[in-house]
Structure formats: structure tokens, C-alpha cells
Amino acid sequence: MNTDFIKGVVVPILTPIDENERIDEAKLRNQVDYVIDGGVLGILAFGSNGEFYMIEEDEMQRGLSIILDQAAGRVPVYFGIGAISTKKCCRLAKMAVQCGAWGVSVLQPMFLKPTYTELYNHFKTIAESVSDTPVLLYNNPGRVNYTLSAQLVEDLARNVPNIVGMKDTSGDITQTAEFIRRTRDIGFKVFGGKDTLLYASLCHGAVGGVCTAANFMPELITGVYNKYIAGDLQGSLEMQFKLNPVRLSMDAASFPVAAKDMANLRGRCVGVPYLPTLPTPEGAALEGFKSTMKEAGLL
After folding, report:
1. Domain enclosing residue 15, as ranges
2. What's the burial of 140, exposed, middle or buried (CB within 10 Å: 0-12/13-18/19+)?
3. Is 207 a domain residue?
4. pTM, two decimal places
5. I want to staple 227 with a disulfide (CB 3.0 to 4.6 A). Which of 138, 219, 232, 295 is the partner?
């Protein structure tokens, strides 16, 4: 299975919606062009910042088809799966492959507290349902309240042929490094999942990052990657330091509205989040966005 395309900055693309919470096709197409022009090497449809948990399956299918059509093969398009039940995850994976997704990314089940065996069987079953398609694991302990273990990831990587990589959003660089160390001999592709740790992840052998910031400052986040790959380590680190205050200021807002707020501040016109979340109101958080964005030369 060819996995050479699995690299670089992949953006978990925002999902613009209209007043009826339907995907706004024109705005989504515009956002696809914007991130590709900004230098991303992949688009993840319906990741965490794409608000996957708010969207019905038929609407996901429509949105994925729009993204694939607009991307037109310029970059790989992955599909994010965050369902709890194995059966639903398999159904979504098959739908994504039928639409033309290049790969699927699967978050560990939310709300549950599964054992090693339950998780292993869950991911294996999903991968086998789309056996000709690359599958990426998605470790996000901050949202599901438990982490994927290095042993589990290694076992899946070695025993399930199409589980070929992962995104680690633990924010624990030691854990990210362990995922890489244990699987580096088999070409397993590990992405960093924290924008603020892209440089550090690359230093440990990550192939890139899945970075929310690429939705509104692609020039900075892709610059970290491009300079690193070109061997300009100091330049890469300086770009990392430039973007970090912007990314950290997002933590003052309700998740996940800050990404849309910042995109709108830059004139992207991506609209509002799905209810019950609301745009960040006037106040300290929004002023923090503006201040750090101005300091980084984004406004």
C-alpha cells in the first residue's frame, strides 16, 4: 500500500454552515482553495475542529463530496470518524471510501472506558472493513479522557496491514516520541496533533502535523514544516515561536469556536459554529485573539 502521500501539514478543515446549520457549499469550496493555496499537503474532513459530532451522516457525505470535488486531486483528502460504536464507524468508513477519500482517521471511542482488547478489536474491525484504504488512528485523550497506549498502537501497526499511521494530540511529546520509536522500522506515519508542538514532533521523526491553525494562518504553520524539511531548523523554530501565542490564545474560548472566530477575523467569512456553541463574545478572550494575531502580523 502506497503511503508516500501521508505527510506534511494536514488541516482539519472548518465546516462553514448557513442559518439552518446546513453546510454552506460556496464557503466550503472557498476554504478548500484557501488552505491548498496556503500550502497544506492534506485536508481532513470532519475532524474535531470540523465539528464532526454535530453533523448527520448524510450531511457528512455531502460535505465530503464537496471537499473532494473542490480539491480535485491537488492534495489528499482524509475523512474523520468519531463515532462510538464499531458498527457505525465501519459504515462511515465505507461511505468515505465510496466517495473517494484517500484515507480515514479514527478517533478512539468517546464516553466509554474500553480495555486493550476492546480497543484493539474496534480499530481492527474498522480497518478490515476498508482493507484497501489507509487508516490512521487518532489519539485525543483531552477529549475522550483516556489515551491510546504505545503498546496498543504498536500492535495495531504491526498486525493490521492498512493501519499505517496516526495523529497524536496528547500534547505529551514523550508519548508522541514513543509512538514513533516503536514503529519507525515499519514506516508507520505519526503526525503531531498539537500546533504548538509541530517543530518538536518533527524533531522526533513525525511526518507532519494535523494542524487547526492552517485554517486561518496556513502561511505560518506550513512554514514551520517547509523550513524544517529544507534544513532551516532555526527558521522553522522561529516560525513555531511566532505562531504559538496565537494558538495558545485560543484556549481562552469555548471549544471549538476559536478557530472560526480567528478565521473570520482574517476575513475568511466562515460563519458561526453549530449550536449550542456560540461565537466568542466581546471581552478578554476575543481581545486576546486580536492582540496575538496582530503581533504575529496576521491582522
Report:
1. 8-233+268-273
2. buried
3. yes
4. 0.97
5. 232
The CATH number of whichever domain residue 33 belongs to comes to 3.20.20.70
Q: Which helix (H) or strand (E) is 261 found in, with range? A: helix 257-265
- Please report how many Cα atoms fall inside a 13 Å half-sphere around the Cα of residue 5, on the Cβ side: 16
Cα-based torsion angle of the residue sequence 83, 278, 211, 41 in order, rounded to the nearest 10 degrees: 80
What is the total count of domains within the chain? Answer: 1
pLDDT bin (cut points 50, 70, 90) of residue 222 is very high
Alpha helices (runs of H) in 192-255, residue ranges in sequence order? 198-203, 218-229, 233-249
106 part of a folded domain: yes
End-to-end CA distance of the chain: 43
Residue with cell 471549538: 256
Check: CB of residue 51 under 8 Å from CB of residue 274: yes
- Residue 244 belongs to a domain: no
C-alpha cell at 201: 514532533
pLDDT digits (tens, 9 = 90+) for 57-109: 999 999 999 999 999 999 999 999 999 999 999 999 999 999 999 999 999 99
d(CA 210, CA 177) in angstroms, rounded, equals 16
CA proximity to 167, closest of 158, 176, 159 = 176
Does residue 136 sit in helix, strand or coil? strand
Distances (CA, A) of 291 to 51, 63, 265, 294, 297: 26, 33, 11, 5, 10
**126 in helix, strand or coil?**
helix
> Would strands 103-107 and 77-81 be described as parallel, antiparallel, or unpaired?
parallel
Please report whether residue 294 resides in a domain: no
Contacts of 82 (CB under 8 A, 6+ apart): 46, 48, 52, 53, 107, 110, 138
